[in-house]
Amino acid sequence: MTALLTAPAAFTTATIDYVALLPLFVVFGGALLGVLVEAFVPRSSRFQAQVALTVVVLVAALVAVAVGAVNHRGVTAGTAGADGILRGAVVIDGPSLFIQSIILVFALLAVFTYAERLGGVGSDTFTPMGAAVPGSAGEAEALRAGAMTAEVFPLLLFSVAGMMLFPSAGDLLTMFVALEVLSLPLYIMCGLSRRRRLLSQEASLKYFLLGAFSSAFFLFGAALLYGYAGSVYLPAIAAAIASPVSGLGGLLVPGILLIAVGLLFKVGAVPFHMWTPDVYQGAPTPVTGFMAAGTKAAAFGAILRFFYVGVDQAVWDWRPVLMVVAALTMVVGAVLSVTQTDMKRLLAYSSIAHAGFVLLGVTAVSREGVSGTLFYVLAYGLTSLAAFGIIALVRENGSEATHLSQWAGLGKRHPWTAGVYAFLLLAFAGIPLTSGFTAKFAVFAPMLALHTAGSTALVVLALLCSAITVFVYARIIVLMYFTEPTHDDVAVVDASGGTIATIAVGSVLTLVLGVAPAFVLNLAAQASQFVR
Amino acid sequence: MTSFVIPLGEVGATAQTATGITAYAWLLVALPLFGAAVLLLGGRRTNSWGPLFATVMSWSAFLVGFGILINLLGYAGEERSRSLHLFSWIPAGQFQVDAGMLLDPLSVSFVLLVTFVGSLIHVYSLGYMAHDPDKRRFFAYLNLFVAAMLLLVTANSYLLVYVGWEGVGLASYLLIGFWNWNPPYASAANKAFVANRVGDLGMSIAIMVMFWQFGKTDFASVNAAVGGANQGALTAIGLFLLLAACGKSAQFPLQSWLGDAMAGPTPVSALIHAATMVTAGVYLVVRSHAIFDAAPTAQLAVVIVGAITLLFGAIVGCAKDDIKKALAASTMSQIGYMMLAAGLGPVGYVFAIFHLLTHGFFKAGMFLGAGSVMHGMNDKVDMRGFGNLSGAMKITWATFGLGWLAILGVPPFSGFWSKDKIIEAAFIGEGWRPWVFGLVTMLGAAITAFYMSRLFFMTFHGEKRWPKDAHPHESPSVMTVPMVILAFGSAFLGLFLALGDRFATWLEPVVGGGHGAEHHPVLPIPVITWGTLALVILGAGVAWLRYWRDQVPKTAPAGSLLTRAARQDLYQDQVNEGLLMRPGLHLTRSLVFADQKGIDGAVGGLAALIGGTSARVRKIQNGLARSYALTMLLGVVVILGAVWVMQ
After folding, report:
1. pLDDT tens digit string along A334-352?
2. Domain range for B637
3. Whether residue B329 sits in one domain with residue B401
4. pLDDT (mean) for A399-409
5. In chain B, whose CA is at the least distance from the CA of A481?
6. DSSP result, A343-411
7. Is A338 on the interface with B (CB under 8 A)?
8. Tell me, what's the ipTM?
9. Which of residues 392-421 of A touch B (CB under 8 A)?
């Protein structure tokens, strides 16, 4: 109401810093180009063209981020109002740049796993024809004709663009648009698995339905906050909380919490986590890896921006809720991972537990909390990409061997693969000298710095949960090394250089971020200042 | 960037920048780590020269350690603490963690023990593992262990100690399970892993409380901050450190894994489960002396844990017929002595470490002797199938005998100088404590004499009870030479270090004085010394009557209630199962139940999908998405409701 009643001031042109926005333009443009490629490039060279285009676009976007990071920061695509409150749809600041760049790195690593063909025409993991009914004659015909779903590459780029926009959104509407832009392509990609297609489609549908449900919560929350503050811009909401209008107070907390539901759904926090195991299991493994890494990074970026820029004045209202959610998330993720028998499902529960750990960094409400969160999502993403990269290669008769019993004795026949996987599991567990340890340290430390009983109790709980998860991962290591193989056909397939490069980069960085993390931690610390 | 002159607590010594060879202390960790990396990454190409290379790396680390010792001896006592800043490890806001090393008399003592005994065991393994097809991997793990152990003892902060702590745990796990084709061996490895995890959890919580209280974890800052800290936090830190020590050092109530850990190759038992890793708990307590001195409750807990374990291990040792398990029980008991001494405060620290060193030599020597016996007896471990091996294996018998005399505490052998001092120290104090703890240590000495003599006589004396196919023979010299060197240490190391209070003076700058003159035991010292000796002779005499003079049955007799209990490790496993495992299982089961009903029904549904019964699947599928959404809605309602109620 207030916004409508103020007399329209002189028209101010929106300031748009095109250099700062360049990475987003590059990725969106690349995705559109990919659609054209899909339509016009002949099938024989389409796959190569898509992969090359995607890689070039991602590298160009990375360069653009690097260029922009030097001196193009601040609020862009918006205006500075007369009241001194910056109203910008897109905000490019330290956390945005950090998350944008790590998402681009994740995507670059993921592209190579997407492009794994194993000697076939198109990607090995994606169905030749998504629209065909599983097991139908149409599907068989598509396979014979050499069809392929090369459109996963533009879909990936669209999703990446959404992920990059998500943590940079300066108002709730942009944030919502970004949320949908990142989610919709993911829903489709989840349903495109070549094998076990019904499982994949079920996962896709569930993800879509529940995602739509959570989006509704987000929108409802945004509406309530608009009612409260008269604006959807985060700084304006912050200003409204600082000088509250009487009578509207009841809208604030429900608004914050409903938006939180929408955001927490994306990271898989309890009790909004139920989609995670099904979707992780059903989605094609490269998609799962990308989702685990990218969605978490983007969503935690958005969570940080919303809570730190928009409603940090109301910290006493939302922090207890986030702490309870963090506690539940850690416990449920850790305990339920104990009983899993499917590798992808197990990592799904592990990702839930990790989301709980990262939430500790968020609830710290300090710059150290921000840098800890940024570091954690980076470390977790790299480890996840490598781990899912390996899962995609362990096969029995051509299809992925995701049941734990199929991994028995893998260490004897494939010592290198099993060794790297064991190392990645140790990183998930947070054993020292892996990035997992540094990351946990980086989010626990700011929590301890609060010096309150609740925060300390939460850290103790986190330690207990880490201890539980160690058993889970140790069980797999034992399975791989100390158990006699029961499935003789399980083997690690010969992967292309791209997949191996992804696994290698992920694993090496997991080690580097454990042994010498100072450089990246300092980078995260420098990037931990939000612009308001 | 870093201030190099750091106050080291109330003791008064300051750690100065390392110079000379001490500045190269990082080589201690780097050399064996390099060895492990070469062997593991090099693959089969290194099969031929790998084991030798690993041995050379281990000896090189010893030379570096020796160089550091010479370097430090060149300074006056108070200047022997040297710090070495490596790099800034985790700069997380106000929590800055640097990776650095602290070379002081305490850590250098450990460095020398670990590298010297470790290198000898490398040499011994060249012979012992000669016919193992996978010995390259074995030597890689050994090197990995040495590197992790050296990191543990030279780290300058608790956080870096934790890294080494996990590292030795990992290496120990790999080595216990080395012969993993044997399922019981692999399960033994798991048991060790679980017990160690419980301990490690204690360590991580202790570190966390330190961060919370002091904002730092390096020894210098923590020691300096102890003065102003609140008592509750210090006690908590102390107790959690003790829990960590119990896990690693097989102390009550986490001791059950050590006996099973004997499944690993014997050199591993000698190195890790006798001489070095299992003493890490004692190191941790002594290193944290500032904390324990300021937290009397935690300190008392240390003494009690030590006292219980020393009796526990001794009783279990009396009933074991497996030579390695008997030695393991003895190790547990001897570490109990060290732990007890470490809990006595400044009067005990020196002797805890002193006994740790002498024990490292004689126990490693005896384990290698046991390995030599097994080598000659087709890998049999049941002592009831040995007897009168002294003739067939003269060197093994002699070296083992010196270790036996040392552990009994017979003067002038090593154990006498260290163990007798612990017993004296246990008698110092006021009220009930000196009487209880003093008498426990004396009683322990008597039982030790009994079970060690039993072991020695059953193996080397009495009559032959060999299996028919046994042809005992002496081991090759690559195995006997390390045994001879360790036996030399068993005999004379104690005397050498005790003469003129050499070791006490050496360690004093780190742990403070307090030994000797100003404290008086509640009993006169000669009474303690002679009384202990009399008890030792009594124990050995009983063993002589039963296991040398009398016939030893080839199969174990039923035995008394106590014997049967001792054979079962005093029912420790059953207790653990009842107290820890069952509730844990029930908890998981109830969660699994919830999981199957509420969440994981999806797996069933998904499995059915693959099966292809689509009609039924569609029903499940719809139901599930709905129930998922319902859970979300419920979550939202509960959160909003809770917030509404609170406001």
Report:
1. 888 877 888 999 999 999 9
2. 600-647
3. yes
4. 87
5. B180
6. HHHHHHHHHHHHHHHHHHHHHT-SHHHHHHHHHHHHHHHHHHHHHHHHHTTEEETTEE--BGGGGTTHH
7. yes
8. 0.82
9. none
